[in-house]
């Protein structure tokens, strides 16, 4: 259903009617530039967008897919719905333009709406290019189930739903350019097995030469992503019921897949313009003022247009075009012209820093070509010089010279005689001094078109912290690779006036207190509900994003003595189960140490049959997961199981994985099973800033994977145990750091509690131990927790003892629900995808 966001303006003026077809990054940026030039006094602005949202940052979708951001993230939504009302812009979202009458000067929409214009801007962007492949589409033209592009929120949502539906999803990404590698990286962090297929001979062939592509390939393969270059995909393989099963190649080989992501390039979206009779080649042909050929009042901007035979797929040229077009149609500079863009790219690809500009290699015999190639460290650098001018550069891994090379590429600094010094700090400006020496018109943030001059002006207008500057200019709000340089420029521009962003240390955005200060304030004022905390400690009132971290913190402080309120908890925490993509829930009963009995197994089987539970799956934490339980059945399932909660749904102590230790193993050096059960019995279900996964292994062969857990214990013989903390083996891979070596199971259990309580009190919300431990430092943790340097271990022990004594199995809510609606079904709210029954 189209959404009409119309400003209320009773004033009647002779404003001209400006219509913008397209509410993406180019269209909305152009409107911003027009408004900044007084355009609201000249035009009644109407925008048409086929997605049901305001303008959002497509670059951030990679971060959403990888879990580094969410669809609710402020950095994703550039112009929320309120922005249009506040700026007097009428937005028809969820509608699409289907026809342009150039002579009647009208735009007709899919909804039937007809909109008059005096000036028309076409900003329809690009579409994903889907190569000709057998099986790619259904008979009605829709993409086959399991096939995605990677261009919209809808694409990203679909991939996330499929990636998290089960543990063994396999994906093939077709296209090894920037977008394809970002898709592969994001899916890998979601636990998906990923292969990238690329028909050219090396990755990112548009930006990198063969050697650079080889270095990048090594980095991508280190992430666990399969890379297949020189492979042309000819078919999407499907089962009899139409489900995707893999891809086939021109050489007759194939790869299995449940999901296929096509990132084989983009094509300008020109069909609307073509049907209107505008001149189309690769894109909509425009002149230097972005005016469509042979038109007086129709313009085009962004990826849909073709200027001087060039079409652009990066955002920086879009911003330059938007500035020129705004100057022209507002009259701010009626003679403004766009002469094309010299492309420089600086970004982070799947965690790897890349910078590229100009040509990829020498093209003439007398071109100077300097390379540095070190595959072991993942570093590649090259420059191409012609007639004493830099015409190309490439940096991969170490991009510290990118700022100097960008200026040299724009002919703003002279080249050193020793060309090698362009790649290393040998007489040219270093990374540290580069911020001061950058020219004002150097683009610092390619994603949002922010120059050094913009940042300096922002500081001079009164913004003296990095966060203020980023919020006002949007610098650093895209891929994030420019944030260090943004910080350097702010520091350079602000000088002694630089202010530290104190809010970076606040536990939640709306309360100006660090976590220890917040805990102290809550205790002193005896605040036991989220609303009380907001009322007493949040100067500007409540913030919805703070509810979950605050409710978690209150449970850490007060245990069962906190006051639970509606809306303070995520649905998982309200119903003590993990919601699935089809609206059903996952139930994981506790199996301490992974040990079960015939009686428990019979109960699980009986419950699954009784409640028609479609899937039972062994988890990585040595438990059984009952998937597909209806919300209203949860209390009855728990009662019939007669087993405690396994906490597979919350930010809490989850499980302790064990090997068989000395019970049966011929190599066992310690009773890992008994110790794992003892740890889980003592610390089960403890609330924490993020989930805690533990393991105890009975010998250094590490069958229980204790080296990569939040808290891992390894028997090393002679009754001794090594304790490791801060490990990870999911979206992030990290071997735990050695906290201590102890000589008894009792000491392991004691130190486990001390570490957990310190983590509960000091960690940021959602900060896993693999980030917390390096942030604090393992030597510092040893000094605090093992050596008791600061004399706080006694207090930590006392508070963890209180938390343990306060434990209540949450599945006992089945006897007395916390609210009438706690276990009442609210489905279906909307059509949901169905989880397959196996």
UniProtKB/TrEMBL annotation:
Domain NADH-rubredoxin oxidoreductase C-terminal: residue ranges: 345-412
Organism: Gordonia tangerina
Cofactor: [2Fe-2S] cluster; [4Fe-4S] cluster; siroheme; FAD
InterPro entries cross-referenced by the UniProt entry: BFD-like_2Fe2S-bd_dom, BFD-like_2Fe2S-bd_dom_sf, FAD/NAD-bd_sf, FAD/NAD-binding_dom, FAD/NAD-linked_Rdtase_dimer_sf, NasD-like, NiRdtase/SiRdtase_haem-b_fer, Nit/Sulf_reduc_fer-like_dom_sf
EC number: 1.8.7.1
Primary gene name: nirB
Pfam families (UniProt xref): Fer2_BFD (PF04324), NIR_SIR (PF01077), NIR_SIR_ferr (PF03460), Pyr_redox_2 (PF07992), Rubredoxin_C (PF18267)
Reaction(s) catalysed (UniProt annotation): hydrogen sulfide + 6 oxidized [2Fe-2S]-[ferredoxin] + 3 H2O = sulfite + 6 reduced [2Fe-2S]-[ferredoxin] + 7 H(+)
The organism's place on the tree of life at top rank: Bacteria
Summary of the function given for this chain in its UniProt record: Catalyzes the reduction of sulfite to sulfide, a step in the biosynthesis of sulfur-containing amino acids and cofactors.
The keyword Heme appears for this protein: yes
Pathway per the UniProt entry: Nitrogen metabolism; nitrate reduction (assimilation)
Domain BFD-like [2Fe-2S]-binding: 444-490
UniProt key word Metal-binding: yes
Segments forming domain Nitrite/Sulfite reductase ferredoxin-like: 579-641
Keyword annotations of the record: 2Fe-2S, 4Fe-4S, FAD, Flavoprotein, Heme, Iron, Iron-sulfur, Metal-binding, Nitrate assimilation, Oxidoreductase, Thioether bond
Domain FAD/NAD(P)-binding residues, every copy: 17-309
Protein name stated in the entry: assimilatory sulfite reductase (ferredoxin)
Family recorded in the similarity comment: Belongs to the nitrite and sulfite reductase 4Fe-4S domain family.
Occurrences of domain Nitrite/sulphite reductase 4Fe-4S (ranges): 650-787
């Amino acid at each position: 259903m189209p959404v009409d966001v119309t400003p209320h303006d009773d004033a009647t003026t002779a404003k001209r009617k400006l219509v913008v077809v397209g509410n993406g990054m180019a269209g909305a940026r152009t409107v911003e530039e027009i408004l900044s030039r007084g355009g609201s006094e000249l035009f009644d602005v109407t925008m048409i967008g086929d997605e049901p949202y305001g303008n959002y940052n497509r670059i951030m979708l990679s971060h959403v897919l990888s879990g580094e951001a969410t669809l609710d993230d402020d950095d994703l939504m550039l112009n929320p719905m309120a922005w249009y009302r506040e700026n007097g812009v009428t937005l028809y979202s969820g509608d699409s333009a289907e026809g342009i009458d150039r002579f009647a000067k009208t735009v007709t929409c899919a909804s039937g709406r007809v909109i008059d214009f005096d000036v028309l801007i076409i900003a329809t962007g690009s579409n994903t290019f889907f190569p000709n492949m057998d099986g790619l589409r259904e008979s009605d033209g829709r993409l086959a189930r399991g096939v995605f592009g990677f261009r919209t929120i809808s694409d990203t949502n679909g991939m996330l739903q499929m990636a998290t539906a089960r543990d063994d999803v396999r994906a093939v990404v077709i296209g090894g350019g920037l977008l394809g590698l970002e898709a592969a990286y994001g899916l890998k962090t979601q636990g998906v097995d990923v292969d990238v297929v690329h028909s050219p001979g090396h990755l990112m062939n548009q930006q990198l030469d063969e050697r650079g592509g080889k270095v990048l390939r090594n980095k991508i393969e280190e992430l666990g992503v399969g890379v297949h270059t020189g492979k042309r995909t000819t078919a999407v393989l499907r089962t009899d019921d139409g489900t995707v099963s893999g891809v086939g190649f021109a050489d007759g080989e194939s790869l299995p897949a449940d999901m296929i992501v096509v990132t084989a390039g983009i094509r300008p979206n020109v069909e609307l313009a073509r049907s209107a009779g505008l001149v189309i080649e690769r894109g909509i042909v425009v002149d230097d003022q972005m005016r469509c050929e042979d038109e007086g009042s129709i313009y085009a901007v962004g990826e849909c247009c073709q200027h001087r035979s060039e079409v652009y797929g990066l955002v920086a040229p879009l911003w330059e075009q938007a500035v020129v077009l705004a100057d022209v149609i507002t009259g701010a500079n009626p003679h403004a012209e766009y002469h094309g863009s010299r492309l420089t790219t600086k970004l982070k690809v799947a965690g790897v820093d890349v910078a590229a500009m100009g040509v990829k290699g020498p093209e003439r015999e007398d071109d100077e070509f300097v390379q540095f190639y070190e595959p072991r460290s993942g570093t590649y650098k090259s420059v191409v010089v012609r007639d004493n001018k830099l015409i190309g550069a490439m940096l991969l891994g170490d991009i510290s010279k990118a700022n100097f090379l960008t200026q040299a590429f724009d002919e703003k600094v002279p080249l050193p005689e020793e060309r090698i010094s362009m790649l290393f700090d040998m007489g040219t400006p270093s990374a540290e001094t580069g911020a001061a020496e950058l020219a004002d018109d150097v683009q610092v943030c390619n994603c949002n078109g922010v120059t050094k001059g913009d940042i300096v002006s922002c500081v001079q207008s009164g913004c003296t912290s990095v966060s203020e500057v980023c919020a006002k200019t949007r610098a650093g709000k895209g891929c994030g690779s420019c944030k260090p340089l943004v910080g350097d420029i702010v520091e350079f521009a602000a000088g002694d006036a630089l202010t530290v962003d104190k809010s970076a240390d606040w536990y939640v955005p709306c309360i100006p207190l660090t976590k220890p200060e917040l805990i102290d304030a809550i205790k002193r004022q005896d605040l036991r509900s989220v609303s009380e905390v907001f009322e007493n400690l949040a100067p500007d009132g409540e913030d919805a994003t703070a509810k979950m971290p605050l409710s978690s913190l209150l449970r850490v402080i007060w245990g069962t003595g906190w006051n639970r309120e509606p809306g303070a908890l995520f649905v998982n925490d309200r119903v003590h189960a993990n919601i699935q993509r089809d609206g059903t829930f996952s139930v994981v009963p506790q199996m301490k140490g992974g040990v079960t009995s015939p009686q428990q197994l019979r109960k699980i089987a009986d419950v699954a049959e009784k409640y028609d539970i479609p899937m039972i799956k062994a988890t990585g934490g040595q438990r059984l997961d009952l998937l597909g339980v209806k919300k209203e059945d949860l209390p009855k399932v728990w009662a019939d199981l007669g087993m405690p909660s396994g906490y597979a749904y919350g930010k809490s102590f989850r499980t302790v994985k064990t090997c068989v230790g000395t019970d049966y193993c011929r190599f066992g050096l310690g009773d890992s099973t008994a110790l794992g059960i003892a740890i889980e019995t003592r610390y089960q279900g403890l609330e924490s800033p993020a989930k805690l996964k533990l393991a105890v292994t009975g010998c250094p062969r590490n069958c229980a994977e204790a080296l990569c857990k939040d808290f891992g214990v390894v028997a090393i013989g002679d009754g001794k145990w090594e304790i490791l903390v801060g490990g990870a083996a999911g979206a992030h891979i990290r071997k735990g750091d050695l906290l201590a070596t102890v000589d008894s199971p009792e000491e392991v259990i004691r130190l486990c509690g001390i570490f957990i309580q310190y983590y509960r009190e000091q960690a940021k919300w959602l900060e896993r131990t693999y980030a917390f431990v390096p942030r604090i430092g393992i030597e510092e943790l040893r000094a605090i927790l093992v050596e008791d340097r600061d004399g706080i271990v006694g207090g930590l022990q006392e508070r963890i003892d209180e938390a343990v004594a306060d434990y209540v199995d949450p599945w006992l809510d089945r006897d007395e629900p916390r609210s009438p609606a706690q276990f009442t079904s609210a489905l279906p709210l909307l059509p949901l995808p169905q989880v397959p029954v196996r």
